[in-house]
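Re-run with default settings, no changes from the original entry. Doing this only to confirm the output is reproducible before filing.
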Amino acid sequence: MATIAFYSNKEEIYNTYPGSDLGCTYTPECTTFKVWAPSAEQVLLKLYSTGSFYEEGAQVLSIKQMLFDASTGVWAATIDGDLDKTYYTYVIKTEKGTHETQDVYSKAVGINSSRSEVVNLAGTNPEGWENDRHVLPERPNDAIIWEVHVRDFSSSDTSGVKKDHRGKFLAFTEKDTRIPYTAYPTCVNYLKQLGITHVQIGPSFDFGSVNEFTGVDYNWGYDPVNYNVPEGSYSTDPYHGEVRIREFKEMVKALHDEGIGVIMDVVYNHVYSTADSPFERTVPGYYFRMQDGKFLNSSGCGNVTASDKYMFRRFMVDSLRYWAEEYHIDGFRFDLMACHDIETMNEIRDELDKIDPRIMMYGEPWTANDGENGISGEDCCNKANAKKLSTRIGMFNDDMRHGIKGGSDDDSKGFIQGSTHSAYNVIAGMMGASSVTFGNWANEPSQCITYASAHDNLTLWDKILKSNWSDDFDSTDDLYIRQNKLAAVLVLSSLGTPFWLAGEEFARTKKGDHNSYSSSDAVNSINWTRTVRYSKLVDYYKGLIKMRKAFSPMRDNTTKAVNDGYIVYNGQSISLTLKNDTEGEWDMLSVIINNSENRCSPQIKSQYDLPDGWYVIADSETASDKAIRKYNSNDRR
């Protein structure tokens, strides 16, 4: 046996491992297990018949001493025979004590995650998987992203999804779903008609806040346990790890079959429970940033992972490559990306490029607590450091978000509610945060995710109501509808990548709940009947999507459109004009936005008068990729 001591602020060659074979490597003839645990005094491999102690027939099949390689810090064991669907754990003894844990590199687990599982991954592939292909935008700004939580998507009986598929991965595989007893489309059937290009699914790796035995708890899932395993509560059988893998793949393939890409919300910045985490139980004190013996907390969740340390950086790279290759994931949204260091994120970008440079990467350029991040402010992935990152690592433009609607949870007003104080942030956002004149934290528009709403905070509709001092969540007041439409125009006509929360286009409400991460299905589920009540609003979004797809400069990921275009601002009106040299498209497009309830003043009207030959393709009532009418001086928008 060997004891190896190391320091958290100094990495020696013996406690890093560059290999790509950690975890279990399965063949029908034998399975090899490898765990990096350089500070361990002893590691035992335990094989089990079931994924939990509580299941019928649960028993220990064998216990084997693993062998240590002091040059790499890796403990290894090989077991002969076909171990497919066999469960296992490691018993790791360190100076901190002895703990039984699942594998850090688990690819499958039993119910509630405590035991890892050996799985023949080839046996989890759905029919036709070998022909499934990524759905990737040629340019990041070609993507139109619709964010949805897996459970919210179909848990309501209005979804028209089979009862045993509601809230599950398999809901995405159902075709031609409709609101019961109507012809109105729901779920993927609805998305096809809406015209979005990508679905961003909420955290869907294995997380700790929902009891998979009951499945009745609700949580967004920003509390990871096993990063390389799909969440069991979203499967029809959480007891058997291979089922959740197959059903996740079926979801991806079903969306790909409809031409819709899948972006995964990933949360590498913290774990659910530090003490119970396989990271801490395997190599105590290494995988997290610490100070004076205490875990730092820039995530606001009790710990922050150490992306700046070699082996956690390596884990992130390996994990993301695994999701992209094994599950055909088309992009990744990083939670609290400023918790991570620039070197790590650029390395991830380089590694994903080896698979396909069009795989998307973007994230939140902030932490929950900057004072406990543990790395220099010059090294973290926030907007101030955007220009140190690859131009294909995007960031949410919260300046634009606040400019559009005001504060996220209060009754303040932004541009859509008539404020004249937020126009600068709106203008800068319309230029993809890349304009020297109006603000350019981004290298180019490819780094700018333009949005007005996301899963956090009030929905856009609830924010509009609150800022207008209304609590009529089912209102069809024309003022509120027009403010929603104006937000849609700003998001879909700007030069960044458009993104919004599922249902923004049909006035989705959570009844004023601004932080519904653990609220009930009654609050969080999508009520698909609102697509009927607000059908004109849905049609407006459809028209704007068609317009965006028809005009290349809006999707330019470089600064060409920024430099060729020009903006005019006067009082309560903004005009963005873009030139176009793409054959077969409009030569120019002018977005003229007025946030006043009154008609434009003569000065503004004359300033925005356009010469003959212009046509209106969108106004306050209708949006399209075709001409609605000829432009005249009475047009306000």
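The chain has 15 helices and 26 strands. The longest strand covers residues 87-94.
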